[in-house]
Amino acid sequence: SAGAVNKSEVECLIKLFDVLVAKSSSRCAAVGFDRNMFRDTLHSAFGMTDDMIMDRVFRTFDRDHNSYISVLEWVEGLSVFLRGTLEERIKYCFEVYDLNGDGYISREEMFQMLKNSLDYDHDGKLSFMDFEKAVRDENLLLEAFGPCLPDIK
């Protein structure tokens, strides 16, 4: 549901993608961004520095898990960054922090990222519902999840 991004914004994102890919000397540029290019881009465009988070963002963008970000994945991923509803952003953050992709954030995963446990239903893990409740109740999204939602000027 990236419908909130308008046509000229999409064209802008595609142009940016092309420019960045063209700058890269990598022979796989035709396929899209590899992990290093993507990391450089997150760093230069959004000032992100945390390697672990950038790696997670890469995996979240890379929907088909082929280790490249295609132009489509780039546009879809960035439209959540730029124009996502609160719901979409919460879902995005959840994916970033669900390190093993099992649909739960374990205490270890949470600890990695937040350094304190959000044990809503006391089973030691967080489902999407728990996570969403925590984010809505505490407005954690803005503070704790700042690092994975870049500030775009």
From TrEMBL:
UniProt keyword list: Calcium, Metal-binding, Repeat
Domain EF-hand: 49-84, 85-120
InterPro entries, per database record: EF-hand-dom_pair, EF_Hand_1_Ca_BS, EF_hand_dom, Recoverin
GO molecular function: calcium ion binding
Presence of keyword Disulfide bond: no
The keyword Methyltransferase appears for this protein: no
Ranges that cross the membrane: none
Any Pfam family hit: EF-hand_7
PANTHER family: CALAXIN (PTHR23055:SF60), CALCIUM BINDING PROTEINS (PTHR23055)
Name the record gives this protein: EFCB1 protein
Source organism (scientific name): Todus mexicanus
Gene name of this polypeptide: Efcab1
